[in-house]
Amino acid sequence: MKTKLMYLLRFTLAYTHAEIKGLIVLLGMMVVYVLLYIGYEWREKEVAKLDFQPVLWEANYKAISPKVFGSRKFGENESGWRESGVRRKWVEYKSGVRRKQQAIDINTADSAAWVALNGIGPGFAKRIMTYREKLGGFYQVDQLKEVYGLDSLWVKENKALLKVGAGVYRFLAINQVEWKDFKHPYLPYGQSKVVLAYRKQHGVLKDFEALKKIQLLDLVAWKRLKPYLSFAAP
């Protein structure tokens, strides 16, 4: 089989030995990538299971969600799933108004608070909080759209429930930080070296206007990073 395959590649398709080796390496890398992806997805599911607190989640769900568990008895004006023959039917309030969800502070909300929102499970809650910690806090609600897998439509529909609160809680002290700590999700690779080299030669940067004067600066990236910058002197 191997000999036939080599013959096909070498003589029928006119591949050189180097091209055949490259093709084998490429196929190997693709297999490794697929295995790593499967492993990552499995790990995310396992972590989500460990992070899930069913008692706390159920308490929040009952208190906030307009959908209540089927085991509950309903009054005349209550919404819920009810049995109708062999099918279950969603019954709305007679007034046509659903109970409102509680607003949350996106910079302080814990896992339970996130899970209480429709469409957010334990996995997404953990992902949001992890990204929040990497940033140093959110300064606007639209930053939630940057969380991997979170639908921008969900952010738009739930914007009224999402409050920024005090905003950014950890800043990048541009005049104090050293190279190993000069990092941020918004900061492109190499930009820290540009600023450190300028700082070493010219000293303290007074404000953002002084920062803009640096040559080789990726101004678009730094404008995005601006809410996280501190120009306090060392």
Topology:
Layout: H1 2-12, H2 17-51, H3 54-64, E1 80-84, E2 87-91, E3 104-105, H4 111-115, H5 122-135, H6 152-157, E4 162-163, E5 172-173, H7 191-202, H8 208-212, H9 219-225, E6 229-230
Parallel strand pairs: 3-4, 5-6
Antiparallel strand pairs: 1-2
Explained architecture:
- With 234 residues, the chain is mainly alpha-helical.
- The termini are far apart.
- The radius of gyration is 27 Å and the shape is flat.
- The chain has 9 helices and 6 strands.
- Helix content is 45%, strand content 8%.
- A hairpin with a 2-residue loop joins strand 1 and strand 2.
- It holds the Pfam family HHH_3.
- InterPro entries: Endo/Exo/Phosphatase_dom_1, RuvA_2-like.
Distance between the termini: 69 Å
Specify the biggest β-sheet.
2 strands, antiparallel
How many β-strand runs?
6
**Number of discrete helical segments:** 9
State the order of secondary-structure elements, H for helix, E for strand: HHHEEEHHHEEHHHE
Q: In angstroms, what is the radius of gyration?
A: 27 Å
Instruction: Report the β-strand fraction as a percent range.
Output: 5-15%
Shape: flat
Low-confidence stretches: 67-99
Structural class given helices, strands, pairing?
Answer: mainly alpha
The mean pLDDT is: 79
Q: Classify the helix fraction into a percent range.
A: 40-55%
Transmembrane segments: 20-40
Protein name: Helix-hairpin-helix domain-containing protein
InterPro entries: Endo/Exo/Phosphatase_dom_1, RuvA_2-like
Keywords: Membrane, Transmembrane, Transmembrane helix
